[in-house]
TrEMBL record:
Keywords linked to the UniProt accession: Magnesium, Metal-binding, Transferase
Descriptive protein name: Polyprenyl synthetase family protein
UniProt-listed Pfam families: polyprenyl_synt
InterPro entries, per the entry: Isoprenoid_synthase_dom_sf, Polyprenyl_synt, Polyprenyl_synt_CS
Database matches in CDD domains: Trans_IPPS_HT
Length: 352
């Protein structure tokens, strides 16, 4: 993919800054939930283990909080101005993860059992709903004079996220999905919330609409790059890094970008893959669960041979470049621009 290599220490510091600024407010927000939802949410965030003991779990990459606090600086505000937006976006993001894990049947997230596996499907649904409601409450209560404008952006992003999840589920039951459709789904499911994260801090910091819209475009295309990399990791990622099963997207019969791009190719590997996946679609979930590792490996090899892996890596780079171009005309401090560029570079070289 010829991706840039961001300074790992600088990126780690940037992500940690977003996480540390947002963490106290996020914990306080979750503490408002009624029992046992507060405990279930704490487990999901990695703050406690399944027995309620304090834990130092993997809380995720924290890209969205980092974007929210950096974008506040684009507007000339202190990074703290973006914290209510960072918390609100994280709450919506984790609402989607709780529901996604249940709908997809994923048993592992961040290297441990998912909420529905430990606490049951009902709690996963309720806690997800509670986090969604809490996001708007926090933003409107603590976002200052520009909270309403930020809340509108968050509401649009959340609606698009749900649209994208519906599209993703629908694709699983179709024999053919076009590349353009797949990109539209990714733009909704992943791009919308990252776009919101990239602009919400600036909105809370008093930025004008043109600045916020440029940051939104940056985030949207960064989200598409993020999803492309996620789709690569969903097939070829190391489970020790991703925290998910090997071949996780193939196990769920997802029409991810590598799969769709491979099926659209005109070569023998694409034809063989089409035959296999068409037959797979007719199998019951029970039959599909009996597949062994060699069968998933065969499908992954055909996707790569047909060109799906290379196309998706190239698409991640294209979306990265488009994201970077979106903010070229914005006036901002040099160190803030460097941070936005470093986050964009990190997206396309990450391994989890």
């Amino acid at each position: 993919m010829n991706a840039p290599l961001p300074d790992p220490d600088a990126v780690a510091d940037l992500l940690e800054r977003g996480r540390s600024l947002a963490a106290p407010a996020l914990r306080a927000a979750v503490g408002r939930l009624a029992s046992p939802m507060d405990t279930v949410a704490a487990y999901h965030f990695g703050w406690i283990d399944e027995d309620g003991r304090p834990a130092d779990g993997d809380g995720g990459k924290a890209v969205r909080p980092a974007l929210a606090v950096v974008s506040a600086e684009v507007a000339g505000a202190r990074p703290e101005a973006g914290v209510p937006g960072a918390v609100a976006v994280e709450l919506v993001h984790n609402f989607s993860l709780l529901h996604d894990d249940l709908m997809d049947g994923d048993e592992q997230r961040r290297h441990r059992d998912t909420v529905w596996k430990v606490h049951g499907p009902a709690q996963a649904i309720l806690v997800g709903d509670a986090l969604f409601a809490l996001a708007g409450e926090i933003l409107l209560a603590e976002g200052g004079p520009h909270a309403a404008a930020a809340a509108r952006r968050l509401a649009v992003a959340a609606r698009k996220l749900i649209d994208g999840q519906a599209q993703d589920i629908g694709f699983e039951h179709r024999e053919t999905v076009g590349v353009a459709e797949c990109l539209e789904m990714a733009g909704n499911k992943t791009g919308a919330l990252i776009a919101c994260a990239a602009s919400i801090g600036a909105v809370l910091g008093g930025a004008d609409e043109a600045t916020a819209d440029a940051l939104d475009r940056y985030g949207h295309h960064l989200g598409l790059a993020f999803q492309a990399v996620d789709d690569l990791l969903g097939i070829w990622g190391d489970s020790r890094s991703t925290g998910k099963q090997t071949w996780s997207d193939l196990r769920q019969r997802k029409k991810s970008l590598p799969v769709v791009a491979a099926l659209a190719a005109d070569n023998p590997a694409a034809q063989r893959l089409t035959g296999l996946l068409t037959a797979d679609a007719k199998k019951s979930p029970e039959e599909f669960e009996d597949f062994d590792e060699a069968e998933f490996a065969e499908r992954a090899a055909l996707i790569e041979e047909a060109g799906g892996r290379e196309w998706t890596a190239d698409e991640a780079r294209r979306q990265h470049d488009t994201a970077v171009a979106a903010i070229e005309g914005l006036t901002m401090p040099d160190h803030t621009r460097e941070q936005l560029l470093a986050l964009a570079d990190f997206i396309v070289v990450r391994e989890r």
